[in-house]
Amino acid sequence: MKKTAYTHIIWDFNGTIYDDVDACIKSANRLLGAYDLPLVTSIEQYRSIFGFPIQDYYARMGFDFEKTPFAVLAPEWMDYYFEYSKNSTTYPDIPEVLDVLHKKGMEQWILSASEVNMLRGQLQELGIFSRFDGILGLDNIHAKSKKDIGVAWKAANPDIRALMIGDTDHDAEVAAAMGVDCVLVACGHQSREKLEGCKCIAVVDTAKDVLTLL
User: Fold this and answer.
1) What is the pTM of this model?
2) Are residues 108 and 9 in contact, defined by beta-carbon separation less than 8 angstroms?
3) Do the Cβ atoms of 117 and 123 come closer than 8 Å?
4) Which of 48, 106, 161, 178 could bond to 154 as cystine, CB 3.0-4.6 Å?
């Protein structure tokens, strides 16, 4: 791959910077158990069904929105997630990678399907809020899509050369819609097999591996 002089790095948060896969599985199982549905029994199963839009992921887990609307389920899941994610941290190599990219003179932004105020709070608790030049997130907890936010931001900054780092096929779709390159890490919420079917310049094991591409 020919190396490109990127001016901006656009980070996904959950599963890319923030290792919350275990918290998400526990939250899903708590919710499934509350409605007497079969539990997710392995990380491989979780990664095979997780995806966006989140409503479709809930349907793949077995929820029937005619019986229980998504608008009821989402806040319940969020309550469980707040409980279980208290033990979540960044992936071990993230502080080093953020420092290296900063020293390279690249602006670093987060583009996430998380609610933006929750996201800011998580970044502050993790001690990495100041590492980012900007944060782009949703104004609600329903995690519908971040594509429109990303496309609007790129349209307002047409001259930047950006690389998105994410962990799902949705990140690849968002990057394509924005017209920017994308690298996917296979340590997050979807399997390497699924990621390798996406339109991206590389699938790597960890965020640190991205440094070899720059």
Assistant:
1) 0.91
2) yes
3) no
4) 178
pLDDT digit string, tens, across residues 58-105: 999 999 999 999 999 999 999 999 999 999 999 999 999 999 999 999
Q: How many CB atoms lie within 10 A of CB 178?
A: 21
What is the share, in percent, of the chain residues with pLDDT greater than 70? 95
DSSP state of 213: G
Cα distance between residue 119 and residue 83, in whole Å: 15
- Supply 62's token pair: 């077995």
For residue 176, what are the contacts with CB-CB under 8 A and spacing of at least 6? 182, 199
Residue 81's φ and ψ, nearest 5 degrees, are -60, -45
Which of 190, 156, 152 minimizes the C-alpha distance to 171? 190
